[in-house]
Structures are given as C-alpha cells and as structure tokens.
Amino acid sequence: MPEGDSLHRAAARLQPLVGERVEAESSHPQGLATGVAPMVDGRVLEGVEAIGKHLLLRFEGGIVLRSHLRMRGRWRLERRGTPTRGRPWLVLRGSVWEARQWNGPVLALGERPLRRLGPDLLAETDISDIVRRLRRSDRARLVGEALLDQRIVAGIGNMWLAEALWHARVSPRRCLQDVSDEELAAMLTFAQEQMSASAAGKRSLRAVYRKARRPCPRCGAPISSRGLGEANRIAYWCPACQPDHPE
Ligand SMILES: [Zn+2]
Fold it and tell me: Ligand 1 center to residue 235 CA distance, Å?
C-alpha cells in the first residue's frame, strides 16, 4: 500500500508541471468516467501536495483534484510524447513533461473527505498531540489498528507500522490502553524519522515487514505474521522481543 512517504515522492515527481497550463485527457474508460479530464483541461496546475495518503493537485479557478493510490495506483512523469503501452486514467501534458496516472483507483474533484483526516505525520507534526489524539480514541482497540486510523494520524501504512512497533518492542496485539505514552511516542517518532528519510529518497532496511519466519535482527527469534483486527491486515512482529504481555 502506498504510504505517506511514497505520496510525498509522487508529489515531488510532479513538481516540474507546476505553473504550467496543461492539456488533460483520459484514454482509460474508468478514468474517462471520473469526468476529471474536461474539468482540468486547459487550466494552470498551481500546486501538488501530499496530505496523508492523498495527493492533491490544485488548478486555477479553485479546482482541486484528489488522487488516492491505494495498492496499485501510480503517477509517472515522462517527457511529453514518450510512447506508452496501455491506457492511463489521466494524462496531464505540459510543454516539456507529461504526468500519467495509472490504475486509479480514486480520482475525484474536491477535497471534502480530507476534512476528516488527522494531522499528517510528515508535516511538522507535534508527536505529543498525536499521543493525545490516540488517548481520546477507543482504549480497547489494538495499537496497530489505532495507528493506521487516518482520522487520528495520517500517513502511516502497514509497512511503517510493523517497523515502528518492532523498534519500540510493542506487540501489535496489545490494546491501546496497555501501551504507555512513551511507547506511543517512540513509535511515532521512529515512523516520522523513517518516513521523512524515505520521502527524501533514502532507503532503509526492514526488520520485520514481509520477513515472516526469518530471524529477528535483534534477537534471532523467527518473525511471526498473522492477520489482525477488523481489516485483517497482515501484521509482522517478533514474538520474543515484542511480547503480548510485557513484564
Ligand atoms: Zn526479536
């Protein structure tokens, strides 16, 4: 799943088009069905930014295009006229570059759903504010579910969640009420640092994410994986250094 940092990279990739009057077209039927292309065609692209897991493209006249990439959506920037195979949902063509949006799955005008998003972890967010927001939410929820709730904090996906839990030695199976403020702050700070580095193009090694049955880099015990919570997302953790019931 694209996480906040990959959305920030997509926003950075599209910057060369900012300030340009773009030609817009959709060749993919689902892209065509969104009705977006005729609304933005011929308008100046005034800005592109990532907020949580949404990419917002602001056009002159107050038109805002919202793109959510979920698992498979992609934005690419190529030289204008580069041959392509397949049909993008949307093409935004400037004088030199063109941006192509592949696989949707959400392209919509307006930013209404964003009003429900919590603070973006990659903006200069105060970690203690997010800890307070977590404390105001359902105490019986699993900590892993609460940290993925984009209404509490926007931007964390399954990969950074797994890595942050491992870093703070917290089992994804613990309830929010059994996790201390210090542990929550340690996870959020780690996720914020790692995601910022990743947004800047740095690669980091993963300790547990998609490493089921491989040895934990800290203690050598085999990594566990299992679907957790209502969404049944796959969690990865070390049962030895992230115990469900710490001393
Ligand atoms: Zn371990």
Answer: 15
- Whole-number Å distance, alpha carbon 168 to ligand 1 midpoint, is 11
Ligand 1 is an ion; its neighbours by CB within 5 Å are: 216, 218-219, 221, 238, 240-241
| 115 C-alpha to ligand 1 centroid (Å) | 39
For residue 27, the CA-to-ligand 1 centroid distance in Å is 49
Each residue's pLDDT, cut to its tens digit, for the chain (247 residues) gives 456 788 889 999 999 999 999 999 988 888 888 888 988 888 899 999 998 788 999 998 788 999 998 888 999 999 998 998 889 999 999 999 999 999 988 898 886 666 678 888 888 789 999 999 999 998 999 998 899 888 898 888 888 999 999 999 999 999 999 999 999 999 999 999 998 888 788 888 899 999 999 999 999 999 999 988 777 788 999 999 999 987 7
The CA 205 to ligand 1 mean position distance, Å, reads 15
How far away, in angstroms, is 216 Cα from ligand 1 center?
A: 5
Please give the model's pTM, rounded to 2 decimal places: 0.67
- For every residue of the chain, which 3-state class applies, written as one string? CCCHHHHHHHHHHCHHHCCCECEEECCCHHHHHCCHHHHHCCCEEEEEEEECCEEEEEECCCEEEEEECCCCCEEEEEECCCCCCCCCCEEEECCCEEEEEECCCEEEECCHHHHHCCCECCCCCCHHHHHHHHHHCCCCCEHHHHHHCCCCCECCCHHHHHHHHHHCCCCCCCEHHHCCHHHHHHHHHHHHHHHHHHHCCCCCCCCCCCCCCCECCCCCCECEEEEECCCCEEEEECCCCCCCCCC
